[in-house]
Amino acid sequence: MHAVDQKEESVFQRVVLKNASPFHYMKVHLVLENETTRLTAVELKHFIISGLKTLHGEVGAALNVDVLKYDDDTLTALLRVSSRGLVKLWSSLTLLGSYQNQACAFRVLQVSPFLLALSGNSRELQLD
Amino acid sequence: MSVFMDLNVLFSPDRNRLQGVIETAAHLGFSTVAINYVFEPSSKKKQEVPVPCPISELIDQLPVVQGRSRPIRVLNRLTVLMSDSSHFRPSAPEYRRFDLLAVQPTTEKLFHAACMLYDVDIVCISVTEKLPFIFKRAPINGAVERGVVFEVSYSAAIRDATMRRYTIANAVCLMDSCKGKNVILSSAAEKALELRGPYDVTNLGLLFGLSDGDAKEAVSSTCRAVLLHAGNKYYSTSTASTTGSTAMSTTAIVMMMKEDEGQPSAKRCSGRPSGPSGPPHLRPPSSV
Prior knowledge:
Chain A is of the alpha+beta class. Helix content of chain A is 23%, strand content 29%. Helix content of chain B is 36%, strand content 15%. Chain B: One of its GO terms (biological process) is rRNA processing.
């Protein structure tokens, strides 16, 4: 039997991480004028790299962007980019206006340095 | 933290298109949009200042903003393209029908006059052409003191590559001179696909040379300051110009705060005996 007054010491500890994650993750959704158009993952990546090249040139196009997950029915993708290149990628996604002569818009749904944070989205929460 | 606003949505006679834009703006998280009527006077023939369409005619049911429980607020705004000083007549009665007044000067003299003298809320920086003049510190500081803001629109950058260069060049030039204060970013969207979410626009502000805090303010609190400055215009009975955004008449602030809470219907204002003629929803009830 353990002694009843065995108390565990609780020490308050605060951990602050600066630049903890080398990558930033973005969940994006591509909205096209013609809603029946479909893209493959390769076409999507080519489109993103061409957007980076248009706005930030060869240096922008050399940025390491990975498409981690892609749902081609809803045109929703999960992108990963190094943290230094987040502003470049995000701004080139914002200013991308046309895909093969039809108007388009990239809607950025979530951005986070941690992939786990992208699993839940309080904006799509349904409160019954 | 202030709510997000997009103060430049171009008016189009096509009602469905405008409705689509407003619904997209509500879905993206903007709490207030302002429908922009662009007016380009020419000295040759007399043109009528456009009359704003009442909001209830444009859209029946205002959509609810994503993330809040209130419907989106829609205002009317007039932009006057000035190429001559006779184009803008201060205190013209037609201007009172609009909630916001903006001016887009094309020469250095007009820019100086718009910043220092004219009774406007917003000075638009042109993004479709190379800047015809250099920004000087003196008129910009004068404008900052008076509470006038500078506006950069980003939808031209989405449409065309050359416009993209002009937008970024002009915006960077502006940020150099004004050090990031009193700037708002807005779309000049004609279609729903040209709108971008508030955090996307904040990121564009970083591209233009604003700091993190300034970029977010450009979409939120500076826009709110413009609305307060505009509301104040109709209620200051003294002819002295209001000095900056801090010297506000308390009735105007009460007006704006009450409007934030509820529907902008009848104005509750205590003690304003002289009936100023402003836009209908900013007018106080006639009986005090």
